[in-house]
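Side project, low priority. Logging it here so it doesn't get lost.
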Amino acid sequence: MLHLQRKIKDGKIKEENDQVIFIQVAFFAVGAVLLLWYLAPWVLNHILNAGNVLGIAFAVMLLLCGVFVQPVTHLLAPGNHAPGAVVLKAAVALVCAVAVLTSGYMLTGLIQTGHRDETVLVLGCSVKGERPSRMLRQRIEAATEYLEKNPDSKAVLSGGQGPDEKISEAECMRRELVRRGIAADRLYLEDRSTSTEENVDFSAKIIEQNGLNRHVTVVTSDFHCRRGMLLCRRAGLTASSTPAATDVYLLGTYWMREMLAVVKTVLHI
């Protein structure tokens, strides 16, 4: 009888150890993948912003959870109701809920409405000298496709000139679109803005002053569509989106940063 009880106890201990090892490997694997994903924009493109800083911090936290897996699993165990454990569980649940809900809300901004002949509002992005950056080129390609399919549409190209740019983002987009066969008289330039909020506010004034269609389609990177639409509606425009694809290695960084910006916009902070 004692031998059987010892055998059952040893089996339970082994099962618990196997579970701990599995959790530890999962922490290390996910943490390592996320660390590489969020480091890539910094290493390859010298991009360092709130998105990959938070992503790197989160990845490091997962790796530390792997190192200290036993105390972490003890704190997160369902039956642990100690004050510290309750606070940790509540914090994890809150962060996960905000991330999931915000990401879901951002994804709804990618749903295409099928509207035609809207005013195309292209949001700017960095210019390398006089040439569009990779991300701006992707937005230009999406705008070109829409304008070719909707020959009656006009476009407002929005983006000022940064200190390291030889021309404004709006002018860069105009040159590229004309080079791709879009008539210059269909293009209106907004070249004073320095933020997404100014992109939309200044462009809304151009739309009003020139009697353009107040139904707009926001052409911007996929992660950026929802906030662009929110700001358009706040400016009195009816908005849909025409998303431009983002390179996978950049998506994590910009998605993380944009989640913070969407929460800030929704709360009017």
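Brief comment: The beta strands are 119-123, 127-128, 131-132, 155-158, 187-190, 215-221, 238-244.
Revisit when time allows.
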